[in-house]
């Protein structure tokens, strides 16, 4: 922390002028590597200049060097708290360019695991938010639930976090029947009691409310103008959810509600996430109920690889397999912008194809960029400790923000 | 074409191009719909005016993204793409303009406050300048970074790398030194897709067009001459030189090489970091 005192507070009658401090880049409440240069008047925030980019890895340039399939795992590493939702935008963008049909079972699986990812993400964010404003226990309790989710991902894809499980045309492999049963059981018997227990500690807690209610109120007009999305725009009272308004995969078959806030403060943002967890659970249950059997990846051999047994028998499958894993598939020239509702908001992929096997340009629209940019305007006039509550309610992850 | 994919479905594009083109026709260069996306290409100087009309008259309230794209072969090499979204009409459009290094694009921070960082990012990554942006600093790259990394002619590895120097007790920048050449695998099929000459073919004249299919059913059709034809008629080929015993000793397997051949020391003098990892010296 650096302090530039122009006048010593010990000199008589002198007024302390504004001073500047560094919040981060190594700060537990910065949710990663965020440096904020704060100008303070006493303990009141006058101005915030967030410096992002400390985790910039040039993902978009790396993707230009890889084939469409090879670029997929980079998406797990963007928002590492909700990896499957990152992949979702990317595979949908490729499918839109290819105009590729995805089998219904694959669509159900993708929606189900995207919602499981949403729960997983919200567990982490809410835990961190609660921790940032001073409560320790709920974080430990709901982190346990997050661990359960990660175990489910492991059973589906083999990896706890960086699943790389979605594929253009479907998913990589089918899930065992037992996994679906276990997810249903987990929701019924374990998830809700534990989650409600943890929330009962927080939701009506006096300190939690004092730290969050009426902090960083954003009007509807401002939320629209600043490009807010996800829980941030819903907390402002705008029922805008891409799963509902621009449905992708089988979201149009799902019945769920969009929770909205009334006061547009940090407490509302938190509550929107709490309610969203219940809606996600609803969607998962509908998926479990309605999921048909059938193929889990496109039957177009030019895009999705053949089964291993098939490959050993059929010459054509062998050629397809070889071509897919060396050259990759070609995507027709053109450009699309595909945005999905990630747990943090609108996560978009602008994909420019020149007709070859590698993307010409892949621009990623991070959710945090617009939200973090509003940090200055949201925190002005609030106290220094409020900054952590505001940051927690934004739900920022730097893998995604800095790319 | 029937829509088969399951990507997000927003409101229909029908009539959108006609309705919007009418109001921005003065600055509109081209408008089309492809892959379900509506794209308007407009004159660079009018970007701010066009977007203002789209926001105020056509209810595209949100600016979701500004993307830069580099096409080095064009005279104005950069493209700046604005993604707009309408919450009330549930529709998306893209507006794009072209720019070069020295032709600034008018800023849209006057319309949307979140354009500030988006424009900063395009400036940082591509070097496109935005006239009127009050705070056009770099955003994602390092403090003091030089160059614009997402240009197609910027090398993947960059120009500098940094490490902690034990001598100077700080992080130092050095030119990039790769232990192994940066590899880029080109899997494009030479028969379809690739439009470059194969290595060795550069000087060959352009391929003549084939009018009739040539087949070689009999040795005479190979065109190798009567001598070769007679040879081909021989029942068995003579033994290869390998099978003849020349009386000389055959070369054995080569000497095993070192696991790690000696590499020249790094120019940057990395040896000064040794104490940090040395159990004897380290931790002091």
Notes on the structure:
The complex is a heterodimer of chains A (403) and B (284). In chain A, the strands form 3 sheets. In chain A, strands 1-2-3 form a 3-stranded antiparallel beta sheet. In chain A, strands 6-7-8 form a 3-stranded antiparallel beta sheet. In chain A, helix 5 (137-157) packs antiparallel against helix 6 (177-202). Chain A has helices at residues 59-64, 72-76, 83-98, 104-132, 137-157, 177-202, 206-212, 220-225, 231-235, 242-245, 266-290, 308-313, 315-326, 367-373, 375-379, 386-394, 398-402, and strands spanning 19-23, 35-41, 44-51, 166-167, 170-171, 334-342, 345-353, 359-365. Chain A is 48% helix and 12% strand. Chain B has a domain at 16-119: NADH:ubiquinone oxidoreductase Nqo5 subunit (Beta Polymerase, domain 2), CATH 3.30.460. Chain B has helices at residues 16-24, 47-57, 115-126, 226-232, 274-277; strands at residues 28-34, 37-42, 62-70, 78-86, 91-99, 105-106, 130-131, 160-165, 170-175. In chain B, the strands form 3 sheets. Chain B has a 5-stranded mixed beta sheet with strand order 1-2-5-4-3. Chains A and B meet through helix 1, helix 3, strand 6, strand 7 and strand 8 of A and strand 3 and helix 3 of B.
Residue share in β-strands of chain A: 5-15%
* Amino- and carboxy-terminal Cα gap of chain A: 27 Å
**Inertia-based shape of chain A:** globular
Low-confidence blocks of residues of chain A: none
CATH superfamily of the domain at 16-119 in chain B: NADH:ubiquinone oxidoreductase Nqo5 subunit
Tally of individual helices of chain A: 17
Structural class of chain A: alpha+beta
Pick out the low-confidence regions of chain B.
none
| Assembly state (oligomeric) | heterodimer
CATH architecture of the domain at 16-119 in chain B: 2-Layer Sandwich
Query: Whole-number radius of gyration of chain A?
Result: 23 Å
The tally of strands of chain B reads 9
Radius of gyration of chain B: 32 Å
Largest sheet of chain A: 3 strands, antiparallel
Which CATH class of the domain at 16-119 in chain B applies here?
A: Alpha Beta
């Amino acid at each position: 922390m650096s302090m530039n005192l122009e006048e010593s507070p010990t000199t008589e009658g002198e007024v302390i002028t504004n001073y500047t401090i560094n919040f981060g880049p190594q700060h537990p409440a910065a949710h990663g590597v965020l440096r904020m240069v704060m100008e303070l008047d006493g303990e009141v925030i006058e101005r915030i200049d967030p410096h992002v980019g400390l985790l910039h890895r040039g993902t978009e340039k790396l993707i230009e060097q890889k084939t469409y399939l090879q670029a997929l795992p980079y998406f797990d590493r963007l928002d590492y708290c909700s990896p499957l939702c990152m992949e979702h935008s990317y595979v949908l963008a490729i499918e839109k360019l290819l105009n590729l049909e995805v089998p219904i079972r694959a669509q159900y699986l993708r929606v189900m695991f995207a919602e499981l990812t949403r729960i997983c993400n919200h567990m982490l964010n809410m835990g961190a938010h609660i921790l940032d404003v001073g409560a320790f226990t709920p974080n430990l309790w709901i982190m346990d639930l997050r661990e359960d989710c990660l175990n489910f991902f492991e059973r589906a894809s083999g990896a706890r976090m960086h699943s790389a499980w979605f594929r253009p045309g479907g998913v990589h492999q089918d899930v065992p029947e037992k996994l679906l049963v276990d997810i249903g059981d987990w929701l019924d018997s374990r998830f809700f009691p534990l989650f409600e227990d943890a929330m009962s500690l927080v939701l009506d807690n006096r300190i939690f409310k004092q730290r969050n209610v009426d902090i960083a109120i954003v009007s509807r007009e401002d939320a629209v103008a600043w490009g807010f999305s996800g829980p941030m725009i819903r907390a402002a009272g705008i029922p805008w959810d891409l799963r509902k308004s621009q449905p992708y995969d089988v979201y149009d078959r799902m019945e769920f509600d969009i929770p909205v806030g009334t006061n547009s403060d940090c407490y509302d943002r938190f509550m929107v996430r709490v309610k969203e967890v219940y809606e996600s659970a609803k969607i998962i249950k509908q998926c479990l109920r309605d999921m048909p059997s059938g193929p889990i990846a496109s039957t177009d051999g030019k895009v999705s690889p053949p089964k291993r047994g098939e490959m050993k028998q059929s010459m054509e499958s062998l050629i397809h397999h070889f071509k897919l894993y060396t050259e990759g598939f070609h995507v027709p020239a053109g450009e699309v912008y595909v945005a999905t509702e990630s747990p943090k908001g609108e996560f978009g992929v602008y994909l420019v194809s020149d007709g070859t096997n590698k993307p010409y340009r892949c621009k990623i629209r991070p959710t945090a960029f617009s939200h973090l940019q509003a940090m200055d305007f949201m925190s002005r006039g609030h106290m220094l400790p409020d900054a952590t509550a505001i940051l927690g309610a934004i739900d920022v992850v730097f893998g995604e923000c800095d790319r | 074409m029937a829509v088969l994919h399951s990507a997000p479905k927003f409101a229909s594009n029908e009539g959108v191009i006609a309705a919007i083109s009418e109001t921005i026709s003065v600055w509109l260069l081209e408008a089309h719909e492809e892959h379900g996306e509506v794209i308007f290409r407009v004159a660079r100087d009018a970007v701010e005016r066009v977007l203002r009309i789209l926001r105020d008259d056509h209810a595209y309230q949100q600016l979701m993204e500004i993307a830069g794209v580099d096409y080095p072969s064009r005279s104005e090499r950069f493209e700046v793409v604005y993604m707009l979204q309408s919450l009330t009409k549930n529709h998306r459009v893209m507006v794009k303009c072209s720019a070069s290094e020295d032709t600034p694009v008018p800023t849209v921070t006057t319309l949307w406050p979140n354009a500030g960082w988006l424009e900063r990012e395009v400036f940082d990554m591509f070097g496109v300048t935005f006239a009127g942006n009050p705070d056009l600093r770099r955003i994602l790259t390092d403090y003091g970074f030089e160059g614009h990394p997402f240009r197609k002619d910027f090398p993947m590895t960059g120009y500098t790398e940094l490490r902690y120097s034990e001598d100077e007790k700080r992080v130092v920048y050095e030119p990039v030194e790769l232990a192994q050449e940066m590899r880029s695998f080109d899997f494009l099929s030479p028969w379809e897709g690739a439009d470059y000459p194969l290595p060795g073919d550069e000087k060959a004249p352009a391929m003549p067009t084939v009018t009739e299919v040539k087949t070689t059913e009999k040795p005479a059709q190979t065109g190798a001459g009567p001598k070769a034809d007679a040879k081909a008629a021989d029942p068995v080929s003579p033994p290869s030189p390998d099978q003849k015993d020349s009386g000389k000793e055959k070369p054995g397997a080569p000497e095993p090489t070192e696991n790690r051949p000696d590499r020249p020391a790094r120019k940057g003098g990395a040896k000064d970091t040794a104490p940090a990892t040395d159990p004897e010296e380290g931790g002091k």
